Every structure is written in structure tokens, then in C-alpha cells.
């Protein structure tokens, strides 16, 4: 966790911007045209596909060749491409949107937290845009926290842990940069053997993992607040497991590579967890749109104003909608400029809000 | 769950084959060559890239153009492609391997369960192969259970639920076939609002969801067997929640669209859960390689020999390694023929093993 802590102190700002784009958070003029092929495009496409050699391209070629008229071939190609790159026009818009946000906040915040679900919803092309977003953010000097919430039995968790250690075309370790994530979130329901592959991967490539402990959503109490025979609540026992799982990888600031997700919507529980988990760094979602305040989030910090980083997603990336400056006849560049300016102002306001709450 | 139950009865076989390929489960001659570019390839590649228009291709073009000698351009392109399609040669091998398995077992088993982590480990190209595997299995008449174990707060769970409902380039519903999954697995740690988006999606497109209750791995007891104040164990309370969450989507065979994952490695707990969850269909992992027997798995079935489907992964897809017939000088086709024959024999043996245990 040392790299994250140092990045936070360099920016003097313990907050992270969640990059969770949805269609209604992105100005419509930012989305590129969807795929529309004519017969010339088709000829070019066929030449390109013949130059490649993978199952997806061969499948598309077969579909085109099976069609019995030029019109049918164009239709087959358009439908097949729409299936093969679902939402390509949308995720291209997400990438332009994310870059505008990153460029506008990179000197204000230490980190960004892309939510992989928002990209995964669009299939493998969405996965590409997720990775490119992480890579662009890293190139701008930001710590990238991949919010992937993976978890499974040991052998499968080891495969998910490639998010950190990576792999290349020869099956070798790929220098820890396949998705350009510096840290990821994981689910603790499987116990030790579902977590060890992630912490081992983090140790191997100087990265971090954050396990869910007390999530910010309303229903979370149905499971996480179940009272155990000894009076503890489930999330408190999970907290003890997380503190224990990270005990062998505590860094120079006293925090381990295994952090915990603790929602700002539970300030008193978070304050108690801060005491209970002295070597566990907190990722604190739920500030802003979900109702958590800076004072609530401040409960998750230690006496040195360290030990936590607070996330805001919609409050930052959707700030342009509340600016009153948006006009539907703006061109994409004007809309993205407004998105960036609004996000920057919101990120600065959040930083100052947190700093005064931590005084 | 009606479609799954009818597919099981049509094949008279309550088992599912887990498609969890790893490099050591696939004969080495099946893997295609990794990317090696010469200057002619580079010229072709540049022409192809110029014909496209997406951030990833533009990024690759920029990298090539920035290099200052032909050798440097080839090196830049090779490195960039290796980063952009990590493990492409490996996952192409996985796809050939999966098709050999599917072709060999499609008349024996009703379903396959691809484990997305094994593909996701290779980035977006792995995601393509996961989807193509699901699509090929559906085309062969198999029910496809996507083992994705996703879970998050409501708004994010809704994005993950696109695995079932899908999306197209216009952001519209994509006929429920983006990943060609008929069902998916999810994690219950978030409570009701983390599950409802998945069950709503399943209802909208006649698909199914399986929530983790009692997983097959050794450490799972650390969390799942925690004793609650009223004497119940955590997994029993989660079981009650799952039975309740599925109450409004019970099908004609008495089972809801929300199933439960219950490991064959816990036969007595599974037997008790079968009583406790009368409307919940079970996905039972842990048979074979993980130690669960047919008798153990049989505890998860109801009086009509219904109510569960048993998974085996390594025991079927890795059966070729125990055949004694493999030779390192086999060509890929010979190795894949052995993989298929061995998988088919293992799938038939598992079916008969389960049927005699259910007698």
C-alpha cells in the first residue's frame, strides 16, 4: 500500500475518482456513429479479415460468404459486427469521456477507480476500453484501482489474479501490466484459499488488493450485519480475517497490501473498524451520491490523517449535468470540455471538503 | 430453471462439464504460434490498422510511427500486439480444445459451464474466446452456464446483469445473446439489492442465476460456517435469503430461476439444504478432482431425482492425460481426437456413476 499512500500525500488529497460511465452520464454528442457498412466497406472488410487469423474473424468471413447476394452480405456483416463488437460506438465514447476526466483531475487527485462492470456490459470491446482507460490513467501518473470484485476457489482465484501479474502470448508473466491496474477489489466469501492467490500476486508485483468488508449499499446489512454466537457481527469477523490475511505484507507506513472496502454510509461502524484493523487501509465508497458525508468518511482515517481513500463517482464524472452550462447543440469537444471543467471543480471541492473534515 | 430441467431430462443426465482450460490441461501442439512479425507483415498490418477507427488500433499505429527504424517499427508492433492481445495464441488453443470437448460430449451431457476466469486471465481476446465457446456450445444444443461469480451494489449489478440481457451498438437490449449464456453464477455478499438486478434480467429473457451458498473449497468454512446468534450457520441464513429471493419466479417444475451453488464436498450440509430450500435448484461443484463422490452429490437431489446438476471440470477435460495414449509427437488433430474421446468416456462414466448413486 506504500505506493498509494505516497501518491495520496504527494497530492495532499485522500480521494479517488470512480470512472463508472453509463450512457446517461456521457453527453450524447460524444458517442461515435454505430457501424453502418456499404458494399465498398464490405470489400475492404473482407480483405482485412482475410489478412487475419483468429476464430472471430473467420466466423465473420464465413457469415459473409454464406450470404447469397451483395445486399445479404452487407446485412450479414453489419449484424455480425454488431454482435461481435456490441456497443463499440458507446464504449469509444466512454474512452473519450474518461480521458477528458483524467486530463482535468490528474493534478488534483492521486487515483482513479474504473468500475469494470460498466465496460464488461459491452463485451470484449468494453474490456479493451477498460484496459486502455487504466493505461491512460497510469501514463498520467495516477494510481489505478480496478474495481473488479472478483472471487472464487483457489485455482480459479489464481486465474483472476492475472489481473495483477498478467500474462503474455508465451504464457509468461507479463511485467504486471496486462490491465494496467495498481490494485483490485475482491470478495471474501470463499475464505483464505480464495484470497491468498490475490495477495501472493500483489506481493509479486508491488500492487494491492482490497477485500469487501462492509459495503455501502442499503441491503448489505442482510448478510454483513448478521449477529454471530459471540456477539460480533459477520462484517467484524470478516474484518478480523482481512487484518490477519494481510499480516505478512505490512509496508513501511504500517498498512498491509490487503486493504478493506468500508462504506462511508456506515460511519460509526467504520470508526470502530479503524480501531479493529490497525494495519488495514480502507477504500471508502458511498461519499456523495450514495449519501456519505466528508465527516462520515473522516471516521475511517487514523490519527495521522492516513489509512483511507474516499471514492466519488457520479458526484465527479456527472458534475457537468448540474453545471447549468450544457447545451444540446454543443459539439463533442465543447461537451467534453464542460465535462472536464465540471469534474475538476467537483474534485477540488471534494478534496477541500475532506481536508476540512479531517482538521 | 425449466429449460435446464428439460434439457437434463432429455439427456437423462444431471451433469455439466466445466470448460476451465489451463495451459497444462491442453496438449501443447494445439497452441498456435505466437505473433512474430517481419517487415512485410508490418506493411500489411499498417494498411489494416489505417482501415480501422478505434482507440486501440490508433494507439498501435502511433507506436509504430514513433519508432525511428524499420527494425524498431517491427519491434514496437510486436511488443504492442503482444500487450494488446496477450495470450492470443493460447486462447486460440483453448477454443480448439473446447470445440473438441463439446463435439465429443454434446449427445451425452445437457450443459457446459465455462469458467470465465480462465479466459479473462488473457484479457479481452480471452473474453472473445469465452463468448465464442458459449456460442458454439449453444449451437450444439447445450445449456450454457457462465461461471462468472459477479456481484456488486445495485447500480453495478445491473451492469453485470447485461451478461444475460445484453446490449447492442445502439445501447438497446440485444436479444439476450451477448455472451450466449443461459445462466450465470453470482455472489450474495451484498444482499437483496445486489441480487435483484440479476433475477430481474433472468425473468426478462428466460434465463437463470445461481447464487453462492456453500462453496466446495476447504477454506469456505471460515466464513460460510460461522455460527449465528440463533444457532444457524451463515450459509444456512444465506440459503434462506436465496430461497426467498427466488420465490416470485418459481417454474412449472417447482424450482425458481434463482438456484444455489452447493459443493459436493459437503454432502450432509447439502442434504439438509435440499430440505431447507425446496424451490431452489442446486449447481453442485466439487465432484471428482475436488473429492466429492456420486453418493455425496446424490444427497443434493429431491425425491424425483431432480433439483440438482453436478459439475466436473478437470475430471472430464483432463481425462486425456490419464488415458496413457498421449504421445508428444502427435499432430494437433490427433491430440484433439484423444482429448475428445477421453472426455466422452469420462462424461459417460460420470453419468452412469450419478445414475447408479441416484437409484
Automatic annotation (TrEMBL), chains A, B:
It comes from the Bacteria. GO terms for biological process: 'de novo' pyrimidine nucleobase biosynthetic process; 'de novo' UMP biosynthetic process. CDD domains: OMP_decarboxylase_like. Transmembrane segments: none annotated. Residues 76-329 form the Orotidine 5'-phosphate decarboxylase domain. Pathway: Pyrimidine metabolism; UMP biosynthesis via de novo pathway; UMP from orotate: step 2/2. The active site is at residue 149. One of its GO terms (molecular function) is orotidine-5'-phosphate decarboxylase activity. It catalyses: orotidine 5'-phosphate + H(+) = UMP + CO2. The keyword DNA-binding does not apply. Keywords: Decarboxylase, Lyase, Pyrimidine biosynthesis. This is Orotidine 5'-phosphate decarboxylase. The gene is pyrF.
Amino acid at each position: 500500500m506504500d505506493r498509494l499512500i505516497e501518491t495520496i500525500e504527494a497530492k495532499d488529497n485522500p480521494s479517488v475518482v470512480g470512472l463508472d460511465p453509463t450512457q446517461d452520464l456521457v453527453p450524447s454528442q460524444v458517442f461515435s456513429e454505430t457501424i453502418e457498412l456499404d458494399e465498398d466497406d464490405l470489400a475492404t472488410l473482407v480483405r482485412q479479415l482475410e489478412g487475419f487469423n483468429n476464430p472471430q474473424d473467420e466466423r465473420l468471413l464465413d457469415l459473409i460468404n454464406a450470404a447469397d447476394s451483395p445486399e445479404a452480405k452487407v446485412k450479414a456483416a453489419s449484424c455480425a459486427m454488431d454482435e461481435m463488437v456490441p456497443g463499440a460506438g458507446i464504449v469509444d465514447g466512454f474512452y473519450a469521456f474518461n480521458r477528458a476526466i483524467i486530463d482535468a483531475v490528474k493534478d488534483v487527485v492521486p487515483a482513479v477507480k474504473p468500475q469494470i462492470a460498466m465496460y464488461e456490459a459491452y463485451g470484449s470491446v468494453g474490456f479493451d476500453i477498460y484496459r486502455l482507460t487504466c493505461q491512460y490513467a497510469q501514463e498520467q501518473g495516477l494510481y489505478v484501482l480496478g474495481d473488479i470484485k472478483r472471487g472464487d476457489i483457489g485455482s480459479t482465484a489464481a486465474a483472476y489474479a492475472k489481473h495483477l501479474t498478467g500474462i503474455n502470448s508465451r504464457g509468461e508473466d507479463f511485467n504486471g501490466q496486462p490491465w494496467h491496474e495498481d490494485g483490485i477489489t475482491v470478495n471474501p466469501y470463499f475464505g483464505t484459499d480464495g484470497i491468498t492467490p490475490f495477495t501472493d500476486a500483489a506481493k509479486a508485483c508491488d500492487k494491492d488488493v482490497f477485500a469487501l468488508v462492509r459495503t455501502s449499499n442499503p441491503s448489505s446489512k442482510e448478510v454483513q450485519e448478521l449477529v454471530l454466537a459471540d456477539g460480533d457481527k459477520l462484517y467484524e469477523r470478516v474484518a478480523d480475517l482481512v487484518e490477519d490475511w494481510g499480516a505478512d505484507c505490512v509496508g513501511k507506513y504500517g498498512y498491509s497490501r490487503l486493504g478493506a472496502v468500508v462504506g462511508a454510509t456506515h460511519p460509526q461502524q467504520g470508526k470502530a473498524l479503524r480501531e479493529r484493523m490497525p494495519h488495514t487501509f480502507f477504500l471508502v465508497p458511498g461519499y456523495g451520491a450514495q449519501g456519505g458525508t466528508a465527516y462520515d468518511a473522516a471516521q475511517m482515517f487514523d490519527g495521522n490523517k492516513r489509512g483511507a481513500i474516499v471514492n466519488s463517482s457520479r458526484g465527479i464524472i456527472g458534475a457537468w449535468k448540474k453545471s447549468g452550462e450544457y447545451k444540446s447543440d454543443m459539439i463533442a469537444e465543447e461537451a467534453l470540455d464542460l465535462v472536464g471543467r465540471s469534474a475538476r471543480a467537483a474534485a477540488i471541492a471534494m478534496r477541500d471538503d475532506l481536508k476540512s473534515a479531517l482538521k
